[in-house]
Design brief:
The protein is α+β, with helices and mostly antiparallel strands and 126 residues long. The chain is 33% helix and 22% strand. The protein contains four helices and six strands; from the N terminus they run αββββαββαα. A six-stranded antiparallel β-sheet has the order 1-2-3-4-6-5, covered by helices on one side. A hairpin with a 2-residue loop joins strand 2 and strand 3. Helix 1 packs parallel to helix 3. The longest helix has 15 residues. The protein is globular and about 45 Å long. The chain starts with a helix and ends in a 6-residue tail after the last helix.
Length: 126
């Protein structure tokens, strides 16, 4: 399955944004890319090799953002029971997928939920 260039460009922008957040690091558990802060995952980036549909999974505790994300085409609560904790999987290759800047906003919200306060505070202007 070939990955669409547009979806891949979005994915790369989201990945770069996630890894640019304070204390963020990329790891590859289960063969997929994740961004962690303080040893905890704040965004699942999946795989980019076309073996699985390209998408991102974020934790959205804000009710409005959570509902907005779930309203995206093909979006669904994350598997393995993570959906009950606010995790949402958003596919990137479906027509009408969210723009990269909105995805980056959701990644940042997920980061703020997971990161220690001292790191999350670095995102706010002084």
């Amino acid at each position: 399955m070939a990955v669409s260039p547009n979806a891949l460009k979005k994915w790369e922008k989201v990945r770069d944004h996630a890894l640019g957040l304070p204390g963020a690091a990329e790891e590859h558990p289960w063969g997929e890319s994740v961004a962690k802060v303080n040893g905890k995952v704040f965004v699942f980036l999946g795989v980019r090799d076309g073996s699985y549909p390209l998408g991102v999974t974020v934790k959205l505790t804000d009710e409005t953002a959570h509902a907005h994300a779930l309203a995206c085409p093909g979006a669904e609560p994350a598997g393995y029971g993570l959906g009950r904790a606010g995790w949402v999987r958003i596919p990137l290759e479906i027509k009408g997928a969210p723009r990269a800047d909105l995805l980056c906003d959701w990644v940042e919200e997920s980061y703020r939920t997971i990161a220690p306060r001292r790191l999350a505070a670095q995102l706010d202007p002084h």
